[in-house]
Amino acid sequence: MLTRRELQMALAAAIIAAPFAGGAAHAQDPIKIGEMNSYTRMAAFTEPYRKGWELALEEINANGGINGRPLEIISRDDTGDPAAAIRIAEELVNRDEVVMLFGGFLSNIGLALADFANQNQIFYLASEPLTDAIVWSNGNKYTYRLRPSNWMQTGMLAAEAAKLDATKWATIAPNYAYGTDAVAAFKEQLKALKPDVEFVEEQWPTLFKIDAGSTVRALEQSKPDAIFNVTFGGDLAKFVREGSIRGLFDDRPVVSLLSGEPEYLDPLGDEAPEGWIVTGYPGLAVNTPEHDAFETAYVDKWGEAPKTGSVVGYNSMMTIKTLLEQTPSLETDDLLATMSGLEVDSPTGPFFYRPADHQATMGAYVGKTGMVDGKPGMVDWVYADGADFLPSEEDAAKMRPAE
Amino acid sequence: MGFYFAQFLTGLANASSLFLIASGLSIIFGVTRIVNFAHGSLYMLGAYFAYTLITTLDAGGFGFWTGVILAALIVAVIGAVIEILVLRRIYRAPELFQLVATFGVLLIIQDVTLAIWGAEDLLGPRAPGLSRAVRIFGEPIPEYDIALIIIGPVVLGLIWLLFSRTRWGVLVRAATQDREMVGALGVNQRWLFTSAFMVGAFLAGLGGALQVPRESVSLLMDLSIIGEAFVVVVIGGMGSVTGAFVAAVIISVLNAFGVLVFPQISLVLPFLVMAVVLIVRPYGLFGTAASAHGPPTVPEAPMKPMSIAGIAVVAAAVALVALLPRLDDGFILVLMIDVLIAMLFAASLHFLMGVGGMVSFGHAAYFGLGAYAAALAVKALGLPMLAAMAFGPLVAALGAMIFGWFCVRLSGVYLAMLTLAAAQILWGVTFQWQSVTGGDDGILGVWPARWASSKPAFFYLALVLSVAGLVLIRHLAHSPFGYVLRGGRDSPIRTEAIGIDLRAHQWLGFILAGAFAGLAGVLFAFSKGSVFPDALSIGQSIDGLIMVLLGGVQALIGPIFGASAFVLLEDYISRLDYWRAILGGVILVIVLAAPNGIAGGLSGLWQLVRGGRKTGERA
Amino acid sequence: MSVLSVSNLSKSFGGVDAVRDVSFALGAAEFLALIGPNGAGKTTCFNMLNGYIRPDRGSVTLEGVELVGRKPRAVWRMGVGRTFQITQTFPSMTVRENVQMALISHHRRTLNMTRRATRLYAEEADTLLARVGMAEEAARPCAELAYGDLKRLELAIALAHRPKVLLMDEPTAGMAPSERIALMALTGEIIKSEGVSVLFTEHDMDVVFTHAHRILVLNRGTLIAEGTGPEIRANPMVQEVYLGGGTVFKGEANDA
């Protein structure tokens, strides 16, 4: 005889769409984890990320999974739409019965998922979103974030910018929350380090629709000593082209957020600017034993060098692996308790999740852009530990809403 | 002085790029009356082909320019293929139906491009011999910008020659001004349409190819240009190439100077200009009244009250849906709530465009207004859920009242474009006004009240409100008021001639449609728990259009089919790789198999079955 | 006693006088024709009578009330109906619904959102359809109608608000000769039974001379003659205008 649930499933399949069947959990059943990202909308940035976590997943399962249970990732495309992301999260949590969620690239989707996690009492690890709100002003009990945030990365840059003798700054950032947050965070931290700086011009081109010529000229007109840039992707390419042909960057330092990431730097080819102070990831140039192992495995599997997303994807899985190995059960409360202060070893070095604000202390690389073996890359870089660029846990906790 | 002149030149260079894509769009619209959503995709393909050709040929200036022209030619051939395989078969479908097909084409091209060229942005070489800057009044101006400034007017001149000195051009102009005349001239209309589409595609491809030295070639090129291209075409007057040129210059130069004063302006500037132009000149700068509408279509059959059997079937369907919570596997209800919301949204749009004949490209504005109003009512005003649910539609209706007052003064595609401008302006406001709307970080934590927070409870709430909304809309369509709207759609002259103030009725219809969309938006906000500017984006508006057109404009039941099909299809297909191409393919199949939409196709099938039975009986 | 009085009606477009100082009166239950060669200003004249075009000068009064300056729909409400040269109906409605629309408007119920439109004034609509001989077609979709039937339907629509004056622009254009006679005969009967006054423009002189009580002749924007059929035929100025235009006039005079 059919069980009630099987009957439900059969009827449901007949009525709506073909749902994935699920049964009762056994010891050897895989541990199911839900994952989603903007794989079609932001393909260039999310592909390396997917390759990163897929590699880690393969390694984990090849080594016997988690306590003998294989790990299964149900990965979905959020289509770049927060509403679709919520619908998919509902399906992952309620139909597929995953134990936790991770992923997200766009900040608004990250925030929507974090809010969903809070409402539905499920653990969500925000892998890629950079917005500070996700752990601070909109932080909640159920959400942790891996990647070094806006505040942290602009802090790393502000520290370098303060060493320049530039006082008049101009900023250029895409006109959306990520851009405005980054500029505000940079200003605040640079002013704290060097009170005499002034910001003489701000440009806010529409995301992915920059009118680079006009914008460059507007910046040039303000005659700044230095420029802080947040544009990325296609906007950055246009900005660099128009800026260099019009001499905007001649004798003028540029401090640029994330531009050292291969996702953004590689497409610029031999036109990549040299000497910009950036945060990013030097890729193959990182020579630590942990990183070498990751690098070899990654190049073997995918036939290309890892990018920033690859590290974020890989570190997400490292986090999950460590979490699942240490958690007493797969119940959300146990997962959350284990996450608090969880220490994770990764190719880019160890980091931990701060109990007070749920932010990981994973760092980023700070250096200058330059040519490495005829390709754009980072030179004179150092690894900046995320812990050094976060407010104290006490201060951070104050920024979070009361629970 | 030198600075401002240089800024002007920068604006002109941008204008040339914009003109190339817009001129092609305008020619295609002028001749075939197709609102070609895939035009941005042709532009993108031009850039990708040019990138490949230029980097492969790699022989200095000759290789570069050969690559550019070849790329444009390849795109022209692709355009011809699209026209012959898809569009040619559906010219007789109801007005704007072809839009769905071009949307399907857009989805397919997105994924094909991804498969061929990969996800990473491609930065092509600069134009050989034009890679530096020259100094004009001491200001550096890129040589390539100057080349573009020359190319724009040259292309305009060539198009002018083509139009005035060739038989083909004369026919194209005739078709643009008076469609029936072309048929009367005994011209092979098929050939004319295909060739016009090819020329349009060539220009789009050329525009894309010429961008290679300026920006990296990326998968986002199609959607980032299409909105502005439409704006330029509309400001210039649909079908007018000269108009497109003037409009491109206006938009680009305004933007070049606008960013000096107000750096955020680019977000809404094109749409602001379009709104102002349309309010002052209802057919754009160079357009004519004839350009507002597509070819006359077969009128829909008179409406009939639902038969007893029909009522029984609908009641049974609603009862079945009401039983869904018993079958829930944790997700069916979520999906059904989305379907119900989509149905209500699509039905409100259908009331406007199907019943009222007012096509809206910006109906998401009222959906989003409802959603934001409800979210703010909860978060900022502290209202309980039900009060917020009443507040949302009211605000949406108020918005529709303000924008509708301007919109109902226009008709056809121009009306559609003004609704789009309104929606984009509103989108810009929610995007930019961070202190109130949270900008693109949205408003979070808009969850239902405790009593409605369980999935079944909220499902029933959504079911009751959506079904009530749908019944009400149907009832309105059958009321004298609904008949007046249909009358206005059929014959505005006759409507006025029997003493009816058509505009006033259309305005009220616009407001009601806005209120129903607002109700759908309210349900949306509470079902998702958050609201983002995406709720009133072009994408949301297009989804609504696709649902209505796919379902069938000429049937009140159409949006219900269209919304269900679209939501279920998208939900299911987005699990697969290359889901956009698959969705596009499915849309094309439906479009070709049922040019009157799903409802039209089903009723055709029903007639066939009944007809078959009757013949059987006779035999 | 005249129902509609027109005096010194003038309109120019870009300096060209389309209509100049036209004055005439339409009597009660009169069947009045307005003729003239192409471009004489007939349509402009018509459009000024019911508010589609605002005249530069002059006045139009309906039973002493000024119509100039009112919108077409206001003119309609005061009792001036109109049919169009190219028929204007609602193709996606049935024949009966087309008439019901006019009735709904006449009874000012266009904003009603609660009733079912098809249930309002159905009998009245059928009576009107019977009057124009279309009772049988009431339930058919309007889009299926033959051209002549559309013209009769327009007549039924025009009668729905019990007009005092009916303006008919080229009522028989595009119809077969037999249909023309039938339609005009019908109009004549309606004039008698309803007491409505009709002003119509027409190209077919047969129709004009057979049915019109009185004829106005317009040439280059001015009224050059006014009178009964025989008077107009005998008028040398009219003959000159029509001979100059090289038409039909003479032959038809012979026929008569």
Summarize the structure.
The complex is a heterotrimer of chains A (403), B (619) and C (256). With 619 residues, chain B is mainly α. Chain B is 72% helix and 2% strand.
Verbal overview:
The complex is a heterotrimer of chains A (403), B (619) and C (256). With 403 residues, chain A is an alpha/beta fold. Chain A has 13 helices and 14 strands. In chain A, helix 3 packs parallel to helix 4 (107-120). The N and C termini of chain A lie far apart (47 Å). In chain B, strand 1 and strand 2 form a beta hairpin. With 619 residues, chain B is mainly alpha-helical. Chain C has 256 residues and is α/β, with parallel strands linked by helices. Chain C has two domains: 2-79 and 163-255, P-loop containing nucleotide triphosphate hydrolases (Rossmann fold, 3-Layer(aba) Sandwich); 90-146 and 154-162, no CATH class. Helices cover 38% and strands 25% of the residues of chain C. Chain C contains ten helices and ten strands. The two termini of chain C are 31 Å apart. Chains in contact: A-B, B-C. The interface between A and B is large, with 75 and 80 residues.
